[in-house]
Design brief:
23 helices; 4-stranded parallel β-sheet; Gyrase A, domain 2; 575 residues; alpha/beta
Length: 575
């Protein structure tokens, strides 16, 4: 397959560097678009990299590389600043790029993303706790993890998404005791999650008055662990009702899982881990007979693997999970999408897993900040919990109001469907357009507006572009064979941005940061809207110019649709 996008420049530059007598790997040649188009379309700092290795002056290196450069694909090449090599691509290159892109996006991206990688990633996302409603804090792991899954699939990985439910532990003994003591089964069956949450809260309220209740809770969980028939039956009922609730919300978010193995799944898989760790003297005696792993840093606390009373912990089940993932899928990557508060825990977990030699995979904690709200008086707030379902309801209601205010030429049913797509999409995009490594701000006014970096703005851009193609009467096969005419500056900026898409996907995958894709789509939308507002497409000055602009518009649609799909956001047919 012929080389495409930035790989074309990298390949030509690599040959010139070697011809000039320097040694470099293709991965060390970075190409980016210039900040100002008058300075070139693309630039590389490879001369400065080579200067650092050879001790030569960067500009001297750059000039020597340019002397050896095959310039047939370039309109112009210059040296700028301390040693940047700036490139202006020939128009014929953009024509070929756009024809490839419009004809088959998968083929266009092939090679840029590594092709079929034959690698596997297992990723843990969402992981709500059974018997409790999903709150907004579950959104971040669910939405960020779903996008990372999609990005890695796009990169050619086989991806298994595992929802590691919190469905085991002493809290279920407490809940079972509460159900038996205060619960009314008919009320629980009618409205399970709120009733179960109320009972769990009641147990803790009563335990503050009578601490002896905690012993009853531990006893009920011990009976559950030992297979007590009635406790098992009640526990299964709790899990099933919780899953019904979770699945309804996941369907609404259009999020799917390949596997849902809760903590309980690993109960029978822990003894082998415990025995091996003990035999290898990795698990040693701690205080009062607990089993621990001594830390590498004496200032850190030890990792407790088994309590003094023989009870296992979350880390014990996590070790069994890592071993199960290894035996079942032999992945290259094991990814856990969990908030930053668990950073020390995951450092401990991965250290213990390494000592036990449980896997050869790269274990990654994809951490994210907390969600913070610009408006603390949100109508979804109830006590200390902001319920996820109520937030989604409010998003759709606000999107419906926005669509009505915009005066879109749609029927009421179409407005309702648009408000669903736009409301859910706005919630997702608000999360994914911000860097996960900082706290993520939730701001209704910024999320739901037809201006700025928002889903309504982006959706309006792509539906407007699709409308132009529809009115043209040409199908995509016809358009993919059109030629590009000499481009205006506005068009050239779009063409440059289109070529940056594969590089953006690679960055998003390498850094586990979907915000690179979101920010890319916003920039592309801005460039297209600037062009659209100043240049006629269907009423262009000539038929050839019309076809040229239709080809470029088709490419924008291809990329926008693909980028939205990687963010897990649906696009309406029209607005």
């Amino acid at each position: 397959m012929s080389k495409k996008n930035l790989i074309i420049i990298q390949d030509v530059l690599l040959k010139a560097i070697k011809k000039a007598g320097f040694d470099v790997k293709i991965g060390d040649i970075h190409i980016d678009k210039t900040k100002m188009i008058e300075h070139g379309h693309f630039a590389s700092n490879v001369a400065m990299f080579l200067a650092g290795k050879t001790g030569k002056r960067p500009r001297e290196v750059a000039e020597k590389v340019i002397e050896s450069l095959d310039q047939s694909i370039f309109e112009k090449v210059t040296v700028a600043g301390p040693g940047f090599i700036n490139f202006w691509l020939e128009q014929k290159c953009y024509t070929t790029e756009c024809q490839f892109l419009a004809d088959d996006l998968n083929d266009y991206l092939y090679g840029s993303l590594g092709g079929p990688s034959k690698k596997t990633m297992v990723i843990d996302t969402s992981h709500p706790n059974v018997a409790k409603p999903m709150g907004v804090h579950h959104l971040l792991s669910t939405i960020i993890g779903d996008s990372i899954k999609k990005i890695y699939k796009r990169a050619g990985y086989e991806v298994i998404n595992d929802n590691y439910l919190g469905d085991w532990g002493t809290q279920f003994g407490k809940l079972i005791y509460a159900i038996r003591t205060w619960g009314v089964m008919s009320a629980i069956e009618k409205n399970p999650i709120p009733e179960l949450l109320n009972l769990y809260v009641k147990f803790h309220d009563e335990a503050e008055k009578d601490p002896g209740l905690d012993d009853f809770g531990r006893l009920e969980f011990k009976k559950l662990e030992e297979g007590d028939r009635e406790n098992r039956k009640l526990w299964k009922f709790i899990v099933e009702k919780s899953m019904d609730e979770f699945n309804r919300i996941y369907k609404r978010l259009n999020v799917e899982f390949d596997v849902i193995n809760g903590e309980s799944f690993y109960e029978d898989k822990m003894p082998a881990i415990l025995k091996y760790g003990r035999d290898e003297k990795i698990f040693v005696d701690g205080e009062k007979g607990a089993w621990i792993v001594m830390p590498k840093d004496p200032n850190d606390p030890p990792a407790v693997i088994k309590k003094a009373d023989g009870a296992t912990l979350y880390i014990t089940r996590d070790l069994a999970r890592i071993q199960y993932w290894e035996k079942t899928w032999s992945p290259d990557l094991m990814v856990n999408v969990v908030d930053v508060a668990q950073e020390f825990y995951f450092n401990q977990l991965f250290d213990v897993a390494d000592r036990l030699k449980l896997t050869g995979a790269q274990n990654v904690h994809v951490k994210f900040g907390r969600m913070q709200f610009k408006d603390a008086r949100m109508s979804t707030r109830k006590g200390n919990i902001i319920l996820l379902e109520e937030l989604l309801d409010e998003a759709e209601e606000r999107a419906y109001k926005l669509a009505q205010e915009k005066g879109l030429n749609l029927s009421d049913d179409e407005v309702k469907e648009l408000s669903r797509i736009m409301g859910i999409g706005a919630v997702k995009y608000n999360i994914l357009s911000q860097s996960r490594t900082t706290n993520i701000t939730f701001d209704w006014d910024r999320m739901l507006t037809f201006e700025g970096n928002s889903v309504p703005y982006l959706m309006y851009t792509v539906t407007r572009a699709k409308s132009v193609l529809h009115k043209s009467g040409f199908d995509m096969k016809d358009i993919s064979r059109f030629d590009l005419e000499a481009a205006t500056e506005a068009e050239t900026k779009i063409l440059i941005q289109l070529m940056m898409y594969p590089d953006t996907l690679n960055r998003a995958a390498e850094e586990f940061k979907p915000n690179h894709i979101a920010n890319y789509l916003y920039q592309l939308s801005q460039e297209f809207n600037t062009f659209y507002n100043g240049n006629p497409i269907l009423k262009a000055e000539s038929e050839d110019l019309k076809k040229s602009r239709l080809l470029m518009t088709a490419c924008v649609i291809r990329i926008m649709d693909d980028g939205f799909s990687l963010l897990g956001i649906s696009v309406p047919d029209r607005m």
